[in-house]
Every structure is written in C-alpha cells, then in structure tokens.
Design a protein that fits this description.
Helix content is 45%, strand content 8%. The chain contains 17 helices and 5 strands. The two termini are 39 Å apart.
Amino acid sequence: WAVGCGLWLRAVAAGRVGALRCPGRVQPRSGCGLWAAAVAVAELRAGSVLCAAQVGALRCPGRARPSRSARVSPVPCPACLRRGTVAAGSGRCRCGNIKAAVSVLQSPACTLLKNYQKWRIECPEISADLQPSSVLGLLQAGYHGVLRSRDPHGSKVLIYRIGQWDPSLFTAYDVFRVSLITSELIVKEIETQRNGVKAIFDLQGWRFAHAFQISPAVAKKIAAVLTDSFPLKVRGIHLINEPLFFHPVFALIKPFLTEKIKQRVYMHGSNYLQSLTEHFPATILPQEYGGEEVSIEELAKEWTDFIMESSDYLQSISLVA
C-alpha cells in the first residue's frame, strides 16, 4: 500500500513530493497516511496549508479517522475551496480507494491551485517579489486604496488611481504587483472568499505613456488572473474618467476575458457620480467620488500602512529571498 501510494503521489505531484517518498513511513499529522499525503500534495500545489473544509474534502475514514479537532489552519489557502466549489466531506474514501482522493485533487478547486502556482512561476516579473519595498513609491503616491466597508453584497472594494502612476518610474508589471499584493492579503478573509472583490479604476490622468506599457503579453497575463489563475471572484470592474484613447487598450485585454468577466465591466465615463452610486452606496465611497467616507488619500495611506505591516508574510510567500 505504501509503495503504491508513493507512486501515486509522484504521479500526481509531478516530482514535487521528495519529502513524501513513502507516506506510510512518516507520521501523518492526522488520520490515515493517504489522507495526510493527499492533504500534503494539495498543500504543495497551493504553497500553503489547507483550510479545515478542504482537509474535510480529502478526509479518509479508514484505519485512523482524523479528529474533528485536527490542527489545521483556519485560513484557506488561498480560498480555492469556495472559488472551485468543492464541498466539504466529498471525496471520502476507504484506505485503499485512491480514486476518490484523486477526484478531489482533480476538482476545479485544485485545478485553480495548480493554475495559480503555474501562473506565478511563469510570471516572475510580477509575482516573484511580493515585498512592499518593490512598489513602495507607487503605494506612497496614493495609487491604491481599499474601502473601509464592504458593498451591500459583501464584496471588498478596491480603488486604483492611474493618475498616481508615473510610467517613467514604474512598469505595468510593478503596477500589477500592487494588485497581487493586496489580493494575497485579502484572500485570507473568509467573507472575501465568499463574496469576492470589486475594483474601481479612476483613469483620470491616463496618457499614451501608460498605454504603451500594455503590450499583448502583459494583457494576457492580466487577463489570466481575472479569469482562472487566482482564487478570488471578481464581482465587478468599474472604470471612471476613462478617455477615448483608453478604449483601444481595453480592446487588447478583452479577448482574453471570459464572457462572465466581460459582463461585469462597467464604463461610467466622467459623469460617473450617479451611476457609480447605483453600484456602491455613498456611505462607503470616499469624498472624491461623491461619498461620505474619508478622502481617498487617507484610505490609501491606511492600506499602505497595512501592507507594510504585512511585510513578513509577503516575504514568506515571495519566490525570491
């Protein structure tokens, strides 16, 4: 059994399970060897520990049924269970029944984990260095902020101000890294996993120097995260103050988006106050956008401070030292 399980692990993990050559010889963290090994393989793919519900999906009630109080992280990794709609408790199996566990690892949730890891490896210019110092100038310029309150649907609301991006100092990859850093932090929130995110892009100040940064290769990498390579549901993308010459850039990205994402893109133009408040109540919007909250400058500073406080965690998930 141990040899067979070891061969299966090698096949599933494609050579990435050196420490688990024979799961029958190691002390499982909880439950039978197959269950613990399956959890470990999924953890390897996610680059993090699994949440309790995901572990439940891989549970094997064989010789040593894992305890309900098994010590696992309450923070999903990184929320693929909900994005991939894997039901806790599915994939139950007897100790010799590898097929059921494999079906869980081949589920949409684990496919998403695999896609994300693959995307990070293939896009090192964006994802290798997630330390705040790599984009500190952008953050201090007030390029990005997060609203204090969620929208009525429970979505986290992010704001990006293109006018604060100096393309002579920062590339499109740097700008996108800011978004990835925020995503890595908020994906740990259970409510965000359930209700996703919405983004407001203020394109005031967009110029040709910005447009020249968005090549087809960059557009494809951005679209990959919006569609099937990051475990956050994108519930809405709202563009305000978009100039006419922004539309060719959006046309470059659009073919790479799914139909569902395309339907969630809203262009409000420069007279956006009324239409924007149809999607977001004034009580949560900053003052500059017709809201009653504090200024976007203050929100940006608050979020920059939070990112800086999270430096150790971001260092731990970076692909570079």
